[in-house]
Write a structure and sequence with these properties.
Helices cover 32% and strands 23% of the residues. It has 646 residues and is of the alpha/beta class. The relative contact order is 0.11. The site of adenosine-5'-monophosphate-propyl ester (PRX) has 22 residues, from α12, β20, β24 and β25.
């Protein structure tokens, strides 16, 4: 551990403003582990309103991958996020919206949110959407994305939000995989002054989705878009004709709330399924305690609704707590690198939650954009998506937080629904780069290669013993893959896919993925998906993708490609290959570096040795390891010769 990673005690501000000091955290944590049923029953009754009380708390068998929480309980997520707040806080702002242009702002009260969501739910009903149907949402970061999610929840439809940066091909694959019959989109989205043609992307996708009978289009920019009278529905016009009364559907705790596709190490993206009761409880409870959220706080999470962070910590968690949550359409560098801090000053943000990649990018542009703003409203800072390097942590802590705001480094995954590891702000000091201690009810375990639990200070694979309410329940349409991916590597535990180290104080340091998943700017990318896109090019016979350290993105995408016989290397082809990946997957998946590889290092059974490719990409040639088991060891010399980073 170096000087930059020294221990920072609980800040005076966090001490004065906390739900849990250290003894309280320890006591409650113990209770949550020794008597989980009682602990979670109490939380479920404190945080949520139920139409019908649950009969049992947990029914979990990790060997069979069967996970159920709050069986027999009935509730509605949209009721919990909106209706129950109306008497007390109907006029309070639920959503502060700020568009791409700083002058474009709007406050939406809980009353207004209620009206919009009820109407949107009626629009969906009008188009035949029923409980259990799947609905695809491909939207900009505007309030309507939240209305759409909550409208689905209100009528019991299952939403599948697809990030607005995904390409036509990715939308198509996700619509087909979840068998969505309705798509909600906008004419265009606007980010950083640029317009992105969402409707046109959907149009191209649905030509091969015969089951889609309705495309609901929100007018965002008013751009001229192609129109199909049979399927396309103008959102604003439809909203004007429907009633603003819509009773929430009574849902079982274990009914699905949403599907969210995420990349895995192999195969097509996985449709992670979260259910109504456990997920909402876990999102609400972690939101309140991790961010020390109090009534009246103004809270801003910079994520996109297309990722789990947007689901849990822009919409579901904060709204279940009756919070004021900010929805931002733009990017942190437009109109300049002071945008976030300008927004903190104007909206008097108290809690700010972002990703290390954004912090690193802003840090690189200079302190002056921060120092001329009044950031005195800030009380707490959060980080998510990847390990935060100590340099970025210090900049965030000192320059943004003025050494006064605790930083919660929150470790979790799409699959976990909410934060599993983070030190609660008032209960434990901080170590820059460490996620910290487990949340209530969470039992992280480090195992060695054989799956044996390691005690005390240890390093190995991170797995979880026992369930927590926000855990995913299955992969949509493929429970066997769910079992295989998460419960077969280490029998009896949930396998996270991350490596971690536990130090003498019990803090967890996340070391990154131990499978072939990349983490680029906090986005999860599957190497297999990028490879499949590259080999679609007629001139490419084979591709292998690995990650390499990247100053801003955390990891960059490094692709090795092998040409078909008789084809020649060229700069134009590199450009074409990058464009091909952007078209197939979205531009955020584009390789940063492409190296020609006349041969790839393979075992005699034909398996590509990515370990070697990673080392060559990183220019770390001292530890290539044993290459003698390769079918043709000479290819390694050739790849080293051609390496791009030196
Ligand atoms: O490798 C871990 C990394 O992001 C992965 C989960 O990605 P995703 O499902 O897209 O969810 C991202 C937002 C929750 C994890 O397996 N990760 C996430 N948070 C952290 C992190 N790595 C280190 N520190 C974190 N705080």
């Amino acid at each position: 551990m170096n000087e930059l990673q020294k221990f920072y005690p609980v800040t005076a501000q966090a001490k004065a403003h906390t739900f849990f000091d250290k003894p309280k955290y320890q006591e409650l944590y113990q209770q949550s582990i020794s008597n989980p049923d009682q602990f979670w029953a109490e939380q479920a009754n404190e945080f949520l309103d139920w139409y019908k009380p649950f009969e049992s708390v947990t029914n979990v068998d990790f060997h069979k991958a069967d996970i159920e929480w709050f069986k027999g309980g009935q509730l509605n997520v949209s009721y919990n996020c909106i209706d129950r707040h109306l008497t007390e806080r109907g006029e309070q702002t639920a959503i502060i919206f700020e568009g791409d242009e700083p002058s474009d702002t709007q406050n939406i009260s809980y009353n207004e949110l209620h009206e919009q969501v009820c109407k949107f739910a009626n629009v969906l009903k009008q188009r035949g959407v029923k409980k259990g149907d799947t609905v695809c949402i491909y939207m900009p970061m505007i309030p309507e994305v939240g209305y759409a999610m909550l409208a689905c929840a209100r009528i019991g439809a299952v939403h599948s939000v697809v990030f607005g940066g995904f390409s036509t091909e990715s939308i198509k694959a996700r619509i087909q995989a979840a068998d969505c019959k309705v798509v909600i989109t906008a004419d265009e989205s606007v980010r950083g002054g640029k317009n992105i043609p969402l409707k046109a992307n959907v149009d191209a996708a649905v030509t091969e989705c015969p089951n889609v009978h309705s495309v609901i289009v929100v007018e965002r920019t008013g751009a001229d878009v192609a129109w199909n009278d049979e399927t396309d529905v103008n959102y604003q016009q439809a909203m004007a004709t429907v009633s603003s009364i819509c009773e929430p559907e009574v849902m079982d705790a274990e009914d699905p709330l949403f599907i969210l596709y995420t990349s895995g190490s192999t195969g097509a993206p996985k449709g992670v399924v979260h259910t109504c009761g456990g997920y909402l409880l876990y999102a609400a409870m972690t939101h309140k305690y991790v961010f020390d959220y109090r009534d009246g706080d103004i809270y801003w999470c910079t994520a996109d609704a297309g990722w789990i962070t947007g689901h849990s910590y822009i919409f579901y968690g904060p709204l279940a707590n009756g919070a004021t949550t900010l929805v931002f359409e733009g990017v942190p560098t437009y109109p300049d690198a002071g945008r976030c801090w300008d927004m903190v000053e104007r909206h008097k943000i108290n809690v700010f939650y972002t990703a290390p990649t954004a912090i690193r990018a802003l840090m690189g542009i200079g302190d002056e954009y921060v120092l001329d703003k009044d950031l005195s409203s800030l009380r707490l800072l959060g980080s998510v998506g990847e390990p935060i390097n100590p340099e970025a942590w210090h900049w965030y802590y000192e320059i943004v937080g003025k050494s006064n705001c605790p930083i919660v480094d929150t470790w979790w995954q799409t699959e976990t629904g909410g934060i599993l590891i983070t030190s609660l702000p008032g209960s434990a000091g901080m170590k820059p780069g460490a996620a910290g201690l487990p949340f209530f009810g969470v039992q992280p375990v480090i195992v060695d290669k054989e799956g044996n639990e390691q005690d005390g200070e240890a390093r190995g694979a991170l797995v979880m013993k026992g369930s927590w309410p926000g855990q995913m329940r299955t992969l949509y349409g493929d429970h066997e893959r769910f079992h295989q991916t998460y419960f077969s590597q280490c029998a009896g535990y949930y396998y996270t896919g991350d490596g971690a180290q536990r130090d003498k104080d019990g803090y967890y340091w996340i070391l990154g993925r131990i499978d072939d998943v990349l983490n680029v700017s906090g986005h999860r990318l599957g190497t297999a998906e990028i490879e499949s896109a590259l080999v679609l090019h007629p001139k490419i016979s084979e591709a292998a993708v690995v990650g390499y350290p990247h100053d801003i993105k955390g990891q960059g995408v490094y692709a090795y490609v092998t040409l078909m016989h008789d084809e020649v290397e060229s700069e134009e082809l590199i450009v074409e290959l990058k464009a091909l990946v952007a078209k197939e997957l979205g531009s955020f998946s584009k390789p940063d570096l492409i190296q020609w590889a006349p041969g790839l290092p393979k075992t005699r059974s034909g398996k590509i040795m990515r370990r070697i490719l990673r080392k060559i990409a990183e220019n770390d040639l001292g530890t290539l390891g044993d290459t003698s088991t390769l079918a043709d060891p000479s290819v390694v010399e050739d790849l080293i010769e051609r390496r791009l980073l030196r």
